[in-house]
Amino acid sequence: MDAFPHQLQTPLELDYLVNTLRSPNPSLTVQNVLGYLYNYLPYVKHEHNLRIVLASFLNNPVCFGAELPSFVDNYLIIEVFKLITEKKLKVSQPTLPVKAFYRVLEKELHNFALFDPLKNSWKVLPIIAGISLANTCRDQLLPSFIEHRWFFSDFDSSMRSLFAKSFQTSMLGTAHIDIVNLSLISLALIYKPSGTLQDYLGLADSKLVIRKLTNLLYGPSGGAQIYGFFAHCSPNDKNIEQLLTRNVLQHPTVKHLNRLSFLLEKLFQDLDYSPESHDLVCESVALILVFDRKINYFTESQEFFNKGTQNLKDGDMFAQQYWFLMKSILFSQVLIFQGMISRFLSLKKRGLLSQFFSSKKHSSRFECQYREICSTMLHCLYYLNFILMAIGQGGFDGYNFIYYVALEIVLQNNSPKRFEYFSRLLIGNYEVNLHPQTLNCSYVARCKVLFVLGLWENYLQQSHVKDKEFLEYLYATTFDIVKDPYLQDDDLCEAGHSVMLSYFSGMENSRENMQKVLQYFELLIGQFPQRLSAYQLSVAVETLGKKIMAHSMSYDNSLYKNTIDEFLSFVYNKCFDTVPGQSIENPKVVLFNSAQPISEIEASSTMSQLKDDSGTTNIIDDNKGEKPRDAAYIDVFSTARNDPTENFGIRETPNTSREGIIMAFMNVVPYLPMSVFIHWLNKIWRLIMSSNKEEQNFLIGKLWKCLSENLDLNRCEIAYKWWYETLRAAELNLGHQPALFKL
Length: 743
Hints:
This protein is mainly alpha-helical. It has helices at residues 11-22, 30-40, 47-58, 61-64, 71-74, 76-90, 98-115, 117-133, 135-141, 145-170, 177-190, 197-201, 206-218, 240-249, 252-255, 257-269, 275-301, 317-345, 353-358, 360-391, 397-412, 418-426, 436-441, 443-462, 468-483, 490-506, 511-527, 534-550, 563-577, 606-612, 619-622, 657-666, 677-689, 693-709, 713-726, 729-732. The N and C termini lie far apart (92 Å). InterPro entries: PEX8-like.
């Protein structure tokens, strides 16, 4: 009995197969043809039979006839030849030896392609790609270096050479779109990062390849448009997982989105610097922007998806598949944008950096190109921010690189009011309705607002020239967001506060701005402790106090001597009016989240490095293009994030509103002018003494911590004298708690 029941070994069976391949009936499909091959080729015993079947397949009118199937159907050739090759590697004798099998494939493919290159070249590409995908399995099953490696090294080299020649012929301008798409997918699958892309492109027009590949991914008929399929599905369908896997995740473009995007990234990196190339980059990123706008509006229109992923259940396959597709799209575009930005930042690889930056004319044109392209990139990221927030604030290296570098380029080359107008459009009525009820119901809209707040925070920190009219708009819009009691999104509220603190850190001291400070402080007190934690309140009060006390402004005919006196008196009165004993329901430490993707910064300015060292620094590898590190806040909560049982059981977080507000007041002590230092220490002491006994014990310890750890030498000397001589702390045993002594 035959040991291989699947094989077709009799002449009649072989004749039937060959006849079917060469003269198929009208009902035969691509899947039928490939099914025949899969059931025959791995088990063939004779080289002659393999040649006949392979030649018959290459001339098969179903796959390669005048009426071409879509590239989605013909993509199965890649998958099936991968399976055929892997099956052959696992099948033992008495079938055709492995080396003989590979030799026949190599010879037949070469002969077929060379016989009529214009007609036949594209047909061998998916076959070579499928065979190459089986190389991992081949290397595992045939580890013998002497017996196999030399042979397969020559085979692989021969296949790469044939693929390159065939690909270049297939990319001629007259090629059918399905042929081009199948060729591009084959290239994406066979190309390895360790290789040189130009070896495959040869004389083929790389600009044409970029244009075709971008359309394959994000054009009007691109594979990423498959997201619309979700609108025609019901989440309650019992077969929803299989339906989405078959029609969405197994779509060739979606399945290999990462590889296709990586290929596009490399193409953009290697693109020349001609005006035509600049136009192509602008055209590509504009096409992606159209796609991103559509997918953003689609998600917002679908109630099922416009809730985000916070409450996503493990068994909800419908939503999980959608968000998986969204994340794949975001990762894809990050790769593509990396290639675009790297093209600019890696000019030194082509010896052009000094040329551009030594000529004002070239520099001006080049920086203008930077600004326009990066502005459109930021627009794309704005529409995709709902995906980033689903992944989790903090982003990832690739995203952070393009976000911060693009934003820095835009801000450093900002023409008057250009960025300001751009960001106002992103949060205007045409894009976002800022009414709290609308924001509460729309996850996508909230993500848009978050993105704009991040842009504004960076603008406040990075822009050297700020538009006063825009600053007023920024302040008013952000203040309206953070003060709205009906807004339910805590992340959005925190991001707004982060922008407000950046605003006050960079403001000019004036009577008008002083009223803004007091108004904002009033808001902070109103939101503590229900919305803001004690730590957040302390950070905010310190930011305000540090700014005001850095540049005092005197008053004439006023109740207060200057802005410092007015601010401190205002804070003091708020502390004094806070009733002792009002407990905080949730006293845990909650930090302020930055409005930007990263809350903590680990790299300095990318463009500044580019200017400082244009010859040796590898900006791509050494710098993630993140925003500069902000100055650290004084932390009176230094042990509050540890386990509460540590530090001998000493309480580190405030339990009452009065404790929290007075602690925040203590954060400005290190910035008090020397002339009023003792005066305000006495007033803070009165606040402590007017608290209840438990609050007194806690606040005395915190005051001692502030005086002993956070002051400069001059203030420290005055504070110690006040502590030990005026208060007689040693006699009264004030603040002498082991965990708090750090002299």
